Amino acid sequence: MAHEILTVAQMYSVDRAAMQAGIPGSLLMERAGMAVAREAIILCGGRPRPVVILCGPGNNGGDGFVAARHLSAAGWRVRVGLLGDRVALRGDAAWAAECWTGCVDVASPDLLSGAGLVIDAMFGAGLNRPLEGQALALVQAMAQPGLPVLAVDVPSGIHGDNGVVLGAAPVADVTVSFFRPKPAHYLYPARGHVGRLVIADIGIPDTVLASIGPTIQTNDPTLWRAQFPRPAVTGHKYQRGHALILGGTVMTGAARLSARAALRLGAGLVTLACEPAAQLVYSLSMPSLIVQPITDAGGFSELLADPRRNAVLLGPGAGTGALLREAVLASLRAGKAGVLDADFFSSFAGALSTLRQAGLNDRWVLTPHEGEFARLFGPLTGSRLDRARHAAAESGAVVLLKGPDTVIAHPDGRVRVNHNAPPDLAIAGSGDVLSGLILALLAQGMDPFDAASTGAWLHGAAGQYCGRGLIAEDLPEAVPAVLKQNNL
Ligand SMILES: NC(=O)C1=CN([C@@H]2O[C@H](COP(=O)(O)OP(=O)(O)OC[C@H]3O[C@@H](n4cnc5c(N)ncnc54)[C@H](OP(=O)(O)O)[C@@H]3O)[C@@H](O)[C@H]2O)[C@@H](O)CC1
Ligand SMILES: [K+]
C-alpha cells in the first residue's frame, strides 16, 4: 500500500516523468475521467441521475469532459457547463472537449436546477488565486441540500499543497484524485471538504517516484510495524526500558495519565519523580508505578544518573517553576531520549537556542498543540505541514504538531500526517496519554520519529475503539485491545 503524499509541484513532475516514459497526457486524462465516471456511478448506487459537470479552463476541466463522455455512454443525462471559452482550451483539455459531442453550456448556477449530481471539475492542481465571480457563485450554488458533489482531484477552491480554502470550496461527498494524494486531502480545513477520498490508478508507474523523492507520508502501521517493540520470550523488565516522568504537585492528573499510558504500552518500569507533598497521590494511583520523592532539580539529576533510566517525559502537569526548567536542561545534557510536552512550552517560550545548546536533538519528541507551538517557535507562517517541518529543522528534534490532522516532522525533512484520530480525542488529558505512549516506545528503544508516529496512530486507534463518551482515563485501558486488534 502506498503512503506517499505528493505536493502539487511533485505531481506535475510525476506527470512529466510519465509522459517521458511514453504515456501520453491524453491517456492519463482519459483514465482520470473514466475513474471519475466510475465513482459517480458508485456514488449514485448504479442508478443514472441527471448530472451536471462543471468544467474549468484547464486540465481539471479536461477530466470533466472525459467523464461526461463516459457517463453519457452509460446512459446518463449529462449537462456540461464550461467556465470560460471553449476555443481557449489548450492541449489535452482541448482534446477532451473535442471528444465530447454533446452540448456545452456556459457554466452558471441555473444549470444546477434539477441536477441529481454535480461533478466539480473547475479547478484542481492549477488553482492559483481565490475564487471570485462566476466560479464563486457556482460553488455557492453547489451547496444545495441533498445535491451530492463529486470533486475531481480537489474540491475547487482548495489549494492542493496547504489545505487552505481560497475564497470558497464545495463540500464534496467524494473526491477522486489520481496516483497519490496531495497534502490538502489530509490537512484541515480542506479535509472537511474532501468527503470520501478515492485515489485512482491512472497507469502511472510507481518507478517515477524514484526521481521525485517524496518526503511526506500518511501515517500507517506498515511504516513502523517492523520496528514496533515486542517483548522477548526470555527478556526481563530492564530490557523493556525504564521511563522517568516528572510529576507536578498541583495538577497531578496529567502525569498519572502519562504514566498509566507508558505502563500499558510496555515500558518495563516507570518512575515518577515528584515533590514529597504529592508523593501519596502518585503512590496510591497505581501499584506498578515507582514513586521517588525529590526536593529539587539535584534530586532529579540523581535519578538521571542511572543509565537504565533511558527515556524522560517532562511537562504534563509539571508547572512552570525552576524544577521543570532545570530538569529539562539536565535531561538534555544527560543525553537521554524523551518527550517534551505541555508546561515545557510555557517554561521555554522563545528559548529554543537555550535548548539547542543544552543538547536538544532528534532523540527528543516535542508534542505541542498550536498554542504551545507558537510559544516555542513564534508565529511561523505556512501550512501545518510546513510549520512542523520548519520547527523540526530549527529545533533539531522530532516535532509532533497536535490536531485533528496531527503532523509529525523529522529534522531531516520527512513528514507524516496522521489521519485516524476521531474528534472525541479533543478532551482534557488526551495529550498526556499521547506523551505517555510515545515515552513507552522511546524507553523500549524505538526510533523517535517512528515512536511519535506509532504513538499518534495508537492514540487515534484507542480513541476510535472507545468511541463517543470517552474520557482520557479510558485511552490507556484501550491499549491492549488495540494492540491485539492490529496484531502489534
Ligand atoms: N498530474 C497528473 O498526473 C494529471 C492531472 N490531471 C488533471 O489536471 C489537473 C491540473 O490541470 P492544470 O494544470 O491545467 O490546472 P487546473 O486545475 O485545471 O487549473 C488551471 C486553470 O485554471 C485557471 N485558474 C486557476 N485558479 C483560478 C481561479 N481562482 N479563478 C479562475 N481561474 C483560475 C488558470 O488560469 P490562469 O491562471 O492561467 O489565468 C488555468 O486556466 C489536475 O488537477 C487533474 O485534474 C489529469 O488529467 C490526469 C493526470
Ligand atoms: K475540482
TrEMBL record:
InterPro entries: Carbohydrate_kinase_pred_CS, CARKD, Nnr, Ribokinase-like, YjeF_N_dom, YjeF_N_dom_sf. Its EC number is 4.2.1.136, 5.1.99.6. The keyword Transcription does not apply. It catalyses: (6R)-NADPHX = (6S)-NADPHX; (6S)-NADPHX + ADP = AMP + phosphate + NADPH + H(+); (6R)-NADHX = (6S)-NADHX; (6S)-NADHX + ADP = AMP + phosphate + NADH + H(+). Pfam families: Carb_kinase, YjeF_N. K(+) binds at residues 60, 120, 156. Keywords: ATP-binding, Isomerase, Lyase, Metal-binding, Multifunctional enzyme, NAD, NADP, Nucleotide-binding, Potassium. AMP binds at residues 402-406, 431. The keyword ATP-binding applies. Transmembrane segments: none annotated. CDD domains: YXKO-related. In the N-terminal section; belongs to the NnrE/AIBP family. HAMAP family: NADHX_dehydratase, NADHX_epimerase. This is Bifunctional NAD(P)H-hydrate repair enzyme. It comes from Niveispirillum cyanobacteriorum.
